[in-house]
Structures are given as structure tokens and as C-alpha cells.
Write a structure and sequence with these properties.
about 60% helix; about 5% strand; 3 domains; 3 strands; three-stranded antiparallel β-sheet; 17 helices; hpI Integrase, Chain A; mainly alpha
Length: about 350
């Protein structure tokens, strides 16, 4: 607490709020300078201690960022970007948030879509063109210098075409890239053995590595797992990843049970005892999960593969189980599961050859 008082800007934020002699709310914090490293962390402490109610911070930060960016646009761009941002991007974000599916990755992608639209209009201004007069050759020219923005600008071009702001430009959706990063089956097996047996590894690293290697869980979904999804029935233990319980290997079950009964908490602010399930891998404060990037960094620090291990685990899973089972158990969309199955069937020989060349 003394360190926080001496080194954090949180006390200054608190003093400013108290001096206003009004109730501390999310809105009063939103009105402050949005230094996210300070204000965002201070907000998390207030939520953790139940001074403020929980909200989808990914959505709220997108809305604050968008309002700030829009306020600095010239009027002729504002007329186009505001409805795109507010009625297309943010409205869809609110819909996803209401279903509990709006992640930090989704918010980052939405910001890129808005930023790409602004950058394209800035480029058109430099060329002394307006959106209605620009043609396909102009869009193609912009993409030659911004090749990584193809997906982001596609959202804006399709939206503008539907609203007849342009009828001379179109962009085709990029084909979803097939996975290219794998490790060999033996390497995945060795990594799993480390996670299940190496007591020198941190407990959260062992659990995360085990769930990735066995069930091909993406990290962004892994960190959202809560303790109520783990249950025992006799000698067996189950983890409900999506809708159906999945039988756990005994060693992984013991690791998860230890985490549930004696969680590793790195914050003075403990999760409240309100009967609600806690996160299996708590962050700081502990009422929120550890961030996906943090667990990825921890896995890599201990020499454990993440993306390539998940790809290999998924390839092995679709080789043994029908796509519909993969979808039901692991929470993968049906289309994604079928795409993986086709990829495994078409590329199994190439995959095995690639694995042998890396061993």
C-alpha cells in the first residue's frame, strides 16, 4: 500500500475525484485524462473492491477512443466516419458484448477498421479526391502501399458501398490463411509431459500448456475459464470447455484441482466472496483473468510453444474426432472445425514430411 501511495498516479486520480464532491462513477473516470496505464488500472481496483460495478471494459475503451478520434476529424471526414464508427462498428461491438463475446482482440480489430477508414480518407484528401469520385484503381493503389490493411479497409468499403457512398470500388474478402506453424507430434508429446510432470514450472503455466496441448484451446478462451467449470464425479474429473464436460487426464485434473482450492493470486485485492465463480487463472486484481498476452509470455519464458503447439493439437484432434464433436467439446465454430478437417485430410502427408524434416 505504501509503494502504491508513493509511486502510482492512482492516489492523485482518487484525490481529484474526491475533490469534486460527487459520487465516483465510471462516467467520472471517463471524464478524466485517459492515461490507460494509470486510469485503467485504478478503475480495475475500484471494480475489484465493488466500489464500481463491472462493465465490459473492452467495449467502453473502444467507445472512449472512438469519441476522441472522431472529435479531431475535419468536418467532411466526420460526416462519413462517424456513422461508420458509431452505427456499424460500435453498434456491432455492443451486440457482441451483450452476448459476452467481446474480447480485447475484437476491440483491437475494430479500432484498426476505424483507423484504416480514416487513413484512406486522408490519402484521398492528399490526392484531391472524394470518396464518391474515387475508383477501383485508387483503392488498388492505396493497397499497394498498405497491404496489411486489406482486411480492415474491406469493412469500410463494403459499408460505404451498401450506403451508396461509392459504387466504383469493391474489395474481395481475403481467403482465411491455412495454418503454417506446427511442431512434431513427438515435440508436442514432450511438451505435454513437461507440463504434467515438471514441478519446477509455475502451476498456471502447467495448466495452460496442458489445455493447449490436449484440447487445442486458444489462449484468449483459455483465460476466460472459471472454477465452476471443473467438477469431480467419483474418480473422474471433468472440465466444461464449451457446452459439454470433457474428461480430464488424472494428472491435469490434480493440477486444476490444486489451482481451484489454492489459487495463485498476485494481488492484495482478493476476489470477493459473493458466491460467484472465480477465474481459473486469476490476474491482477484477481477478479479479472490473467491477460492472454501475459500467459503467452509466461509459456514462452519457460520454452513452451503456443501457436504451433495448438495447431498440432488441433490437427491431431480432427484426425481422431468428427468435426461436429470438435465443435461441441472445444468450442470451435462448426465451419472452423470442418475447415480444419479438410486441411488435415488434404495435407496430412505434407505435414508428416514437414515434421520429420524438423526433428
Amino acid at each position: 500500500m505504501l509503494t502504491w501511495l508513493r509511486t502510482s498516479s492512482g492516489p492523485q486520480i482518487l484525490a481529484e475525484l474526491v475533490s469534486q464532491n460527487t459520487e465516483i462513477t465510471h462516467a467520472s473516470l471517463d471524464a478524466l485524462s485517459q492515461d490507460y496505464n494509470a486510469t485503467h488500472h485504478f478503475r480495475k481496483l475500484l471494480v475489484a473492491t465493488r466500489i464500481l460495478p463491472e462493465r465490459n471494459e473492452n467495449l467502453a475503451r473502444l467507445e472512449l477512443w472512438s469519441a476522441d478520434v472522431l472529435a479531431r476529424l475535419p468536418q467532411h471526414q466526420m460526416k462519413i466516419i462517424r456513422p461508420f464508427a458509431e452505427w456499424h462498428i460500435i453498434r456491432d461491438a455492443r451486440r457482441r458484448s451483450s452476448r459476452g463475446r467481446y474480447t480485447i482482440g475484437a476491440a483491437t480489430s475494430d479500432r484498426k477498421d476505424i483507423r484504416a477508414a480514416i487513413d484512406f480518407l486522408n490519402w484521398l484528401d492528399e490526392k484531391q479526391l472524394d470518396l464518391a469520385a474515387a475508383g477501383q484503381e485508387d483503392l488498388d493503389l492505396w493497397l499497394t502501399t498498405h497491404p496489411t490493411r486489406r482486411r480492415s479497409i474491406g469493412a469500410f468499403i463494403r459499408w460505404a458501398s451498401v450506403r451508396r457512398l461509392t459504387n466504383r470500388m469493391a474489395i474481395t474478402a481475403e481467403r482465411t490463411g491455412l495454418p503454417s506453424r506446427f511442431i512434431s507430434e513427438s515435440a508436442l508429446s514432450e511438451q505435454l509431459k513437461r507440463c504434467l510432470n515438471d514441478d519446477e514450472l509455475p502451476l498456471d503455466v502447467r495448466i495452460a500448456g496442458g489445455l493447449i496441448g490436449l484440447y487445442a484451446l486458444p489462449v484468449v478462451r483459455l483465460v476466460e475459464l472459471t472454477t465452476d467449470r471443473f467438477e469431480r464425479s467419483g474418480d473422474d474429473a471433468y472440465l466444461t470447455i464449451e457446452r459439454n464436460p470433457v474428461l480430464l487426464p488424472p494428472k491435469l485434473a490434480l493440477l486444476i484441482q490444486e489451482q481451484v482450492t489454492r489459487p495463485t493470486v498476485r494481488s492484495m485485492v482478493r476476489p470477493p466472496r459473493d458466491g460467484r465463480p472465480h477465474y481459473l487463472l486469476p490476474g491482477s486484481p484477481a477478479h479479472r483473468p490473467i491477460t492472454a498476452q501475459r500467459i503467452v509470455n509466461k509459456l514462452r519464458e519457460h520454452g513452451l510453444e503456443v501457436i504451433s503447439a495448438r495447431n498440432t493439437a488441433m490437427l491431431e484432434a480432427v484426425a481422431d474426432l468428427p468435426p461436429i464433436v470438435i465443435s461441441d467439446l472445444f468450442g470451435v465454430s462448426a465451419s472452423s472445425a470442418h475447415r480444419w478437417a479438410r486441411f488435415a485430410q488434404d495435407s496430412w502427408a505434407d505435414y508428416l514430411a514437414a515434421c520429420q524434416s524438423t526433428e
